[in-house]
Each structure stands twice: as structure tokens, then as C-alpha cells.
């Protein structure tokens, strides 16, 4: 046995005095575990390991069965010689020797037939189990696909069920709004790349306050500008028209449609892309505009966890202060130095959290 070869007794897990039947029984058990047909749907590395193990098991089985068969032949030969010797001392010994040899030959043939039958049954059992495993895996895949399609249908059905929207903010009271107010369409791209459209109404009286269309504590995002336009023109579907300036806004929509210009387009996915890079490569304007929007959404929908992550002295607030001056001629030099020394890990983690919290409060509509 070469140093790289495993002891066939160890490989099959039998003792050195095991009978041929015990060796065959252990071999059939190992076939059920390692036969390549049982691993057709497994990863490539698993299939390769199963093939290697099965080759070693077959080689070990052949070695041990050859040894046992050789021992059996030698034992029978010794018995034959003894019986020949005894038979030669009795009358008619020649015929008895011939009959005994025939019996031995028939016994060997019967043993070979039994061994072939055992191996055939093992192969059939392994193939049957492989088919059953494949059927189970196919059933799991089909069930997962059916569940996925059901979730898609449920989501699409929910998106077609338009709730009755109203302007959302703790301070929103139409009767108390008596100052300049502007309404703008905006677009928001979420972290998965899906882009939606909604409205932003900004009231400048007694400090700037921003309202958003919401329902049941959720920010309403429409899959397309056409869907938003259709919803707004169905005045019986929402309560947005009570705000000052609504008629002027709708007149502009009816004349020119709905579109969100670059100054009112926000992208959470770009934020997540930037924070994977060094902090000095982050785009200040991107972070400033998205931070302001998220702050306005958090105030409108009372997202306390988000407000805490954006509060004064927080990692995002510190980063925001630096980015607002980094491009200035004099103050920007010091801000750039501080950005280079800034530990960006806490800011990156905070940004992921605020984006996740906001996206959890989004409801898509078609």
C-alpha cells in the first residue's frame, strides 16, 4: 500500500476479521451516502468530492472482496485436498471427488450470482433515492416559485388599491396655513434602484415645514409620473386639494404634465454606493440634499429613530457640517483635512440605518 492510499479496512469502516457479508453490507451503506447520482443537484465541489469518495470506496471494496475470495478459494482447495486424500482411501473415491468438485463450482457460481444481485439492488436503491431527492428538491423549488409569484401578485394588487391620501405632518392643519406655499413633484430612487414619484409641499410661514402625501403613516410613492398624474386628477380619491396653492399647481400639471427636475431628484442607492468608497470620494451635494429630504420625511412621519440618527452631534450631522463647507475657498481647506481624518464607519452605518427606516415606511402605488 502506498503512503497516499488509505487502508481499505479503515476506509470501509470494518475490522480485519470481517466476513464477506459484513464487508458487502458496509459497502452498500456507503453507496447510499456517496453515490454521485444522489448529488446531481449539489454544488460542483460537492459532486466532485462524492465522485472521489465513491472511487475510493469501490477500490477498497474490490481489494477486500478479492482478499476474501482468495482466502475462500484457498480454504476450499485445502478442504478439497483433504477430502481427495480421504476419498482416495475409499472405494469409488474418484466419482465422489468429481461430485464434490461440481458442488464447489456450483457454490462459487451461486455466490457470484448473489454478489451481482446485491450490487444491482444497491445501484437500483441509489438511483431510486436520487430520483426521490430530485423530486423533493423540484417540489421545494416549485413551492418557492409559487410563493414568490403569490407575493408579487399580492404586492401588485396592493399597489392598485389606492388609499385616500392626505398631507402628512404633525403640524398640518389647512385652516392655519396662510402664507407662501409651493408644491413640487419629486422623484426618489430607493436602495434597490426602484424609482418612484410623489409630491413635496413646502410652507414658509413661521419656519419652513414640508408636507408629503401619506396614508396610514406611510409615504406614498407612485411607480410612474402617469400614475401620479392619474391619481391627482381623481379628486375624489384624496384629500390633497385643501392646501393653499393647489389650484395653481394642478393648472401647471394639466398644462405641462408631471416631471421632477434634477434639483428635486433623490437617490438613496447612490448614497449606499458612495459609502463603500473612501470618505474623501463622497459627493457632498448628494449627501446634503438626501440628508435634508430624509430629515423632512422623518419630521413629517415622526420617525423618531431616524431623527435620533440625524440629531445634532451625530455622525451624520458631523459629516453634514463638513460637507457644507468643504468646497469653500478658505473654510473648505480645514474641512477637507477633517474629512481625511474622519472615521467613516459610524457615518456609513448610520446612513444605512436611516435609509432602511425610511424605506420601511414607503408604500408603492401604480
Structural class: alpha/beta
Q: Element order, helices and strands?
A: HHHHEEEEEHHEHHHHHHE
Strand composition percent:
5-15%
- Fraction of residues in helix: 55-70%
Count of distinct structural domains: 2
Keywords summarizing the entry:
7-stranded mixed beta sheet, about 375 residues, elongated, 12 helices, about 10% strand, 2 domains, single chain, alpha/beta
Walk me through what this model shows.
The two termini are 73 Å apart. This protein has 12 helices and 7 strands. It has helices spanning 8-12, 20-34, 44-88, 93-160, 225-233, 246-256, 268-274, 284-300, 304-309, 315-323, 331-341, 344-360, and strands at residues 166-168, 181-189, 195-203, 209-215, 218-222, 265-267, 362-365. The chain is elongated and about 135 Å long. It folds into 2 domains: 8-157; 166-365, no CATH class. Strands 1, 2, 3, 4, 5, 6 and 7 form a 7-stranded mixed β-sheet that branches. Strand 4 (209-215) and strand 5 (218-222) form a beta hairpin. The chain has 366 residues and is an alpha/beta fold. Helix 2 packs parallel to helix 4 and helix 3 runs antiparallel to helix 4.
Amino acid at each position: 500500500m502506498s503512503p497516499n492510499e488509505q487502508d481499505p479496512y479503515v476506509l470501509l469502516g470494518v475490522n480485519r476479521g470481517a466476513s464477506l457479508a459484513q464487508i458487502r453490507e458496509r459497502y452498500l451503506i456507503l453507496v447510499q451516502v456517496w453515490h454521485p447520482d444522489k448529488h446531481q443537484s449539489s454544488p460542483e465541489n460537492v459532486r466532485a468530492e462524492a465522485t472521489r469518495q465513491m472511487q475510493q470506496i469501490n477500490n477498497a471494496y474490490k481489494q477486500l472482496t478479492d482478499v476474501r475470495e482468495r482466502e475462500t478459494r484457498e480454504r476450499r482447495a485445502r478442504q478439497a485436498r483433504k477430502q481427495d486424500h480421504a476419498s482416495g482411501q475409499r472405494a469409488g473415491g474418484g466419482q465422489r471427488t468429481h461430485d464434490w468438485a461440481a458442488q464447489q463450482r456450483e457454490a462459487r457460481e451461486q455466490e457470484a450470482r448473489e454478489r451481482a444481485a446485491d450490487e444491482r439492488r444497491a445501484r437500483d436503491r441509489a438511483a431510486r433515492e436520487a430520483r426521490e431527492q430530485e423530486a423533493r428538491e423540484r417540489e421545494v423549488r416549485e413551492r418557492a416559485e409559487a410563493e414568490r409569484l403569490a407575493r408579487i401578485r399580492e404586492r401588485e394588487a396592493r399597489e392598485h388599491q389606492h388609499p385616500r391620501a392626505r398631507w402628512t405632518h404633525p403640524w398640518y392643519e389647512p385652516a392655519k396655513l396662510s402664507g407662501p406655499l409651493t408644491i413640487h413633484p419629486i422623484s426618489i430612487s430607493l436602495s434597490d434602484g426602484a424609482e418612484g414619484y410623489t409630491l413635496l409641499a413646502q410652507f414658509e410661514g413661521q419656519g419652513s415645514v414640508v408636507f408629503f402625501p401619506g396614508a396610514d403613516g406611510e409615504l406614498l410613492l407612485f411607480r410612474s409620473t402617469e400614475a401620479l398624474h392619474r391619481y391627482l386628477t381623481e379628486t375624489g380619491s384624496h384629500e390633497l386639494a385643501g392646501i393653499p396653492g393647489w389650484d395653481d399647481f394642478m393648472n401647471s400639471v394639466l398644462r405641462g404634465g408631471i416631471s421632477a427636475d434634477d434639483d428635486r431628484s433623490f437617490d438613496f442607492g447612490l448614497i449606499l454606493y458612495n459609502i463603500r468608497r473612501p470618505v474623501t470620494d463622497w459627493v457632498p451635494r448628494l449627501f446634503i440634499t438626501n440628508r435634508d429630504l430624509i430629515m423632512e420625511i422623518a419630521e413629517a412621519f415622526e420617525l423618531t429613530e431616524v431623527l435620533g440618527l440625524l440629531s445634532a452631534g451625530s455622525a451624520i450631522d458631523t459629516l453634514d457640517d463638513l460637507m457644507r463647507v468643504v468646497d469653500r475657498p478658505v473654510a473648505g481647506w480645514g474641512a477637507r483635512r477633517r474629512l481625511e481624518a474622519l472615521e467613516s464607519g459610524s457615518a456609513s452605518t448610520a446612513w444605512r440605518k436611516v435609509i432602511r427606516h425610511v424605506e420601511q415606511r414607503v408604500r408603492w402605488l401604480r
